[in-house]
Amino acid sequence: MARVFVYQTRVAAGGDHCFPILELPIIGNFNILVENSRGEGSITNTSSMTMSAADMTTQDNNSKTMGEKPSQTNPVEQYILLAKQAKGAAAVQLVKQVLEAPEVYVFGELLDMPNITNLKNNSQHAPYYELLQLFAYGIYGDYARESSKFPSLTPTMLTKLRHLTIVSMATGQKSIPLVTLGSQLGLASTRELEDLIIEAMYTDIIHGKLDQKNGILELDHAIGRDIKPEDLPNIVATLQSWCDTCDTMLTNIDQLITRANSDKEKHLKHRNSLEAEVLNIKASLKTQAQEGDEALVSDSRDHDKKRPAKKGIRASSSKFWPKSS
Questions:
Q1: Are strands 3-12 and 15-25 parallel, antiparallel or unpaired?
Q2: Which of 58, 99, 148, 272 is deepest in the core (most CB within 10 A)?
């Protein structure tokens, strides 16, 4: 798809310089006022820009093949910008392009745009508004039941609607029999069903495994879809119930924390009292031991005093016997 780049012109030394500020797809032929910073401008039709925009697209594709990262912007944003100006038939063409655009699987923001909402007030354009709502909230079965209510779908639109149906089914169950899936998608051929599932996986709207042996699609992940306005009260009630449950759990946790702190305080007091009692017992035993030692020493001294003194050998003053002659 060709795109037109919107540039802002600034006056600088050496002349005017252009800075890209916006990138939009070209939808039909429009007259665009090209104006520079001095207010000088001219009317240009987008048909004359088709070649340059196509060249830009080719250049972008070449840059992607060289390893550059693609833009991280929301794919539907460019259509929302165009919806601010597109009215009537131009808005219808915008809806058609959105429904065929790759990587665009949410449409709620576009439905909220006034120019898109006004389509339902025109009997000629109202079916396209209903078709956009079908892609936002419905499934393939809704289209099959009331196909006369909607405009005819192109093969690309039909494939996208079937992809969205798989996403809706994935929210309710993680293992889907291929027979059930085929009946919901209006596909009798197993080969066509498997090709559709593989394409959905490559599009990255679902993650899972195709079990051909058991005839089951096992899903691990699926993208989110737009929320119907009538489902909002149920969502609010569910979230409120979850918040109430969280509050109850927090209250119980606070009570458990308070009880644990109280038990800890009692335990510390009990431990401190035991340690104090142990210290008292040690001090008492030490005192008793000291008193016992002192008593033993005193008894020993008293015993020594009561023992009689030993008589010493006194020296004899007798004369020596005279030597015999």
A1: antiparallel
A2: 99
- Both tokens of 144, joined, read 């099959």
- The two three-digit tokens of residue 198, written as one number: 């593989």
Q: Of 49 and 188, which is predicted with more confidence?
A: 188
How far does CA 147 lie from the centroid of its chain? 38
Q: Is 225 exposed, middle or buried (0-12, 13-18, 19+ CB in 10 A)?
A: buried
Question: CB 258: neighbour CB atoms within 10 A?
Answer: 10
Alpha helix stretches (DSSP H) within 118-231 = 126-137, 140-145, 155-170, 178-185, 190-202
**Cβ distance 112 to 102 under 8 Å?**
no
pLDDT per position as a tens digit, 80-135: 889 888 888 999 999 999 999 988 999 989 999 999 999 989 889 999 999 999 99
| Residues sharing a CB contact under 8 Å with residue 240, sequence separation 6 or more, in sequence order | none
Q: Are 200 and 166 in contact (CB under 8 A)?
A: yes
206-211 and 15-25 beta bridge pairing: unpaired
CA distance 80 to 99: 13
**Residue 253: is it exposed, middle or buried by C-beta count within 10 angstroms (0-12/13-18/19+)?**
exposed
What are the tokens at 311?
């008589």
Residues 199-244 have pLDDT tens digits of: 999 999 999 999 888 999 999 999 988 888 888 899 899 999 999 9
CA 218/CA 175 separation, integer angstroms: 5
Whole-number Å distance between alpha carbons of 288 and 308 = 33
**Tokens 């007091």 belong to which residue?**
269
Residue 273 tokens read as 């009292």
Bridging pattern class, strands 216-222 and 206-211:
antiparallel
Residue 290: its H or E element: helix 232-306
In contact, 185 and 163? CB cutoff 8 Å: no
